Amino acid sequence: MTLTLTLAAPSYALLQADTTCWKCGESTRVATIWVPSFTDTSDVEGPEDEPEIGGAATLRHIEDLDDNVTDHVREVATWLKPGHSETAEATYWANHCPHCDALQGDHFEMGVNGPFFFQHRAEADALELIPGRGPLTANASASQSEWMDWIALRLGL
Ligand SMILES: [Zn+2]
Predict the structure, then answer these.
(1) 33 CA distance to ligand 1 centroid (A)?
(2) Where are the chain's structural domains?
(3) Residue among 88, 86, 76, 67 nearest 30 (CA)
(4) Contacts by 100-106 with C-beta closer than 8 Å and gap 24+?
(5) Considering the entire predicted model, what is its pTM?
(6) CA distances from residue 121 to 12, 55, 118, 147 in whole angstroms, order as listed
(7) What confidence score (pLDDT) does residue 105 get?
(8) Which domain of life is it from (predicted)?
């Protein structure tokens, strides 16, 4: 079965941060996929339905990525890969600890005090940022937060 990729973005970037694995306590690198804007057609079923259009966001619940983005992630963020989330009872692209392979969940990463929780622009500016290679299509949901706009400013978008 071929899934229809319902989320499209004109470009993307990989953001990387260091955190501590919740399971083994070792330092672990985590990555998230950022987009400057997106169009989500997952709720478009008839001609009267409008797609959801949004600004800067990061992708969550990634079920599928287009081949170009998949190849890029495999090169620069090998620990970001499909994994079964028992909490979500589904398979999503998720960060895995390089030491013990434990899945680092979206809630843990994006939550208060997580590696992708920022209240000040200097914190978001300190993230390692790897520019993407062209547009992105995916099966995922987009999550928007103020600091994601700061990444657009940093990229001059
Ligand atoms: Zn670990």
Answers:
(1) 21
(2) 7-154
(3) 76
(4) 100/21, 100/23, 100/24, 100/26, 102/21, 102/22, 102/23, 102/24, 104/19, 104/21, 104/22, 104/28, 104/30, 106/60, 106/61
(5) 0.92
(6) 19, 18, 7, 7
(7) 82
(8) Bacteria
**pLDDT at site 1:** 43
Compute, in angstroms, the gap from residue 96 CA to the centroid of ligand 1.
8
- Ligand 1 ion: nearby residues, β-carbon < 5 Å: 21, 23-24, 97, 99-100, 102
**d(CA 67, ligand 1 centre) in Å:** 28
Mean pLDDT of the chain, nearest integer: 92
| DSSP string for 30-50 | EEEEEES-EEE-TT--STTPP
Q: How far is the CA of 88 from the centre of ligand 1 (A)?
A: 20
What is the reported pLDDT for 86?
80
pLDDT at 42 over 70: yes
Distance (Å) from CA 21 to ligand 1 centroid? 5
Token digits for 56? 């800067």
